[in-house]
Design goal:
286 residues; globular
Length: 286
């Protein structure tokens, strides 16, 4: 799943040009070249359709988390987190769609504001309820770390775009989205952990509570650590690829050319620098 999110071109990730340049290149990223967009949206809708309905009635007895921790604030914060997290996942699908970002930047900006607001609020809810978990310190620490990193990466991405640091913004938001989709990955890893540590769940035999806590605690870590490692590997690979291309043509890689709100003439200089040099010399407009 995260490899689908990370399947963006080098230009999309590292380029720090203006949104106008993004729109000029919109024709270069048709949907057929981004086959992960539709599956990602379908996966998100299916997951939300599965996870949210039990909480619509606001009845703790229908919650998927049973038994419920004995804290009056736990269920309201849990429901708030689930609703806000669902909004964040839907907004994230729009945020990682290159065609929408380039062809309709206004929609990208507004969906980005929705994502940031929902993600920051949902992560705060998780910070509060994580210490109330009933499956041991392993689960509590894992969920707390997830909430802190989700908050930090989202805030870093927001600060970067406010400073017009487009490449930094995309990298931080990719990390944030990877952490947001950890709840989806959790549903994949949980049956695997149960099969290893508590196979009795599938046979109807008596379950050892300690083994169940171990399975849930491990899943709580793996669901976001693996996502984040995949994204970091992909970002490192792109940086290495950019440096290799730059060294082959004798020019700096595109990831090192920044405009960050500079005047138009600076953008023209940057554009000239990333073009391959002619047989004689590189001419930079002044």
């Amino acid at each position: 799943m995260i490899t689908m999110l990370a399947d963006m071109s080098t230009d999309e990730l590292s380029r720090t040009t203006s949104p106008t340049a993004d729109r000029r290149l919109a024709v270069q990223t048709p949907l057929v070249r981004r086959p992960w967009v539709v599956p990602l949206v379908l996966l998100t809708v299916i997951f939300i359709g599965y996870a949210v309905p039990p909480y619509l009635a606001l009845d703790p007895a229908r919650a998927r988390i049973q038994p419920m921790p004995p804290h009056a604030s736990y269920y309201p914060l849990l429901v708030t987190h689930i609703f806000l997290g669902s909004v964040a996942l839907l907004a994230a699908c729009l945020q990682v769609w290159p065609w929408l970002r380039r062809s309709h930047p206004a929609i990208h900006r507004w969906s980005g504001r929705v994502y940031v607001t929902a993600a920051l609020s949902a992560s705060i809810c998780v910070m509060i309820i994580s210490p109330m978990g009933l499956h041991g310190a392993n689960q509590r620490v894992a969920n707390t770390m997830l909430a802190l990193l989700w908050f930090a990466t989202t805030l870093a991405g927001f600060r970067a775009i406010r400073r017009r640091r487009f490449a930094d913004h995309r990298q931080w938001m990719l990390r944030s989205v990877a952490l947001a989709f950890s709840i989806v990955a959790f549903r994949f890893w949980m049956p695997v952990a149960f099969a290893v540590f508590v196979p009795e769940i599938y046979t109807g035999a008596e379950v050892d509570p300690a083994a169940l806590d171990q399975a849930i605690g491990l899943t709580s870590w793996v669901s976001w650590v693996v996502n984040l490692l995949i994204v970091e590997w992909w970002l490192h690979r792109r940086r290495t690829s950019d440096r290799s291309v730059g060294s082959e043509v004798g020019q700096p890689s595109s990831s090192r050319i920044t405009t960050r709100g500079n005047p138009p003439e600076t953008e023209r200089v940057s554009a000239a620098l990333v073009k391959p040099a002619s047989s004689k010399s590189l001419r930079v407009p002044t």
